[in-house]
Design a protein that fits this description.
The structure is a single chain. This protein is mainly alpha-helical. It has a domain at 3-59. The chain contains three helices and no strands. It has helices at 3-27, 37-59, 110-113. Helix 1 packs antiparallel against helix 2. The longest helix has 25 residues, at 3-27. The N and C termini lie far apart (82 Å).
Length: 115
C-alpha cells in the first residue's frame, strides 16, 4: 500500500486514540480536557508532516529530497563558459546580447529643448 494513503487513512483513528488518551488522563486527574488541546495540534501536525513527506516521495520517487542543479537548456558537460563545470555556483545563463543592452533616453519636454 502507498505510504501516503496509509497515513491519510490512519489520521482519524489516531485522533480517536489521542482523545481516548486525554480521557484517561482526565480520569486520573493528570490533565484536564481544557488543557489537552495542544495534544490534538501536535498529533495533527505530525500526521500532516508525515503525509506531505509521503506525498512528495510518491511524486518524485527517483530523486533525493532536492532536485539537482539547473544546467540550462543547451548546456554541455562543461557548463555555459569554458572551464566551468555544469553544476558550479550561480545561474547558468549566457550573457545578454548587445541588442538587449540598447537604452534609449526618454523624450525631453519641448520647453527644455529651446534653452
Amino acid at each position: 500500500m502507498n505510504r501516503y494513503i496509509f497515513l491519510h487513512r490512519i489520521k482519524g483513528p489516531v485522533m480517536i486514540l489521542v482523545f481516548g488518551l486525554t480521557a484517561l488522563l482526565d480520569q486520573w486527574h493528570i490533565l484536564s480536557y481544557g488543557k489537552s488541546w495542544p495534544l490534538y495540534l501536535i498529533a495533527l501536525g505530525i500526521l500532516q508532516l508525515a503525509e506531505r513527506a509521503a506525498w512528495t516521495q510518491a511524486q518524485y520517487p527517483n530523486q533525493g529530497p532536492y532536485p539537482g542543479p539547473y544546467t540550462g537548456p543547451n548546456q554541455g558537460p562543461q557548463g555555459p563558459y569554458p572551464g566551468q563545470p555544469s553544476g558550479w555556483g550561480g545561474t547558468n545563463v549566457a550573457p545578454p546580447s548587445s541588442s538587449a543592452l540598447t537604452i534609449t533616453p526618454p523624450d525631453m519636454p519641448r520647453d527644455l529643448e529651446r534653452k
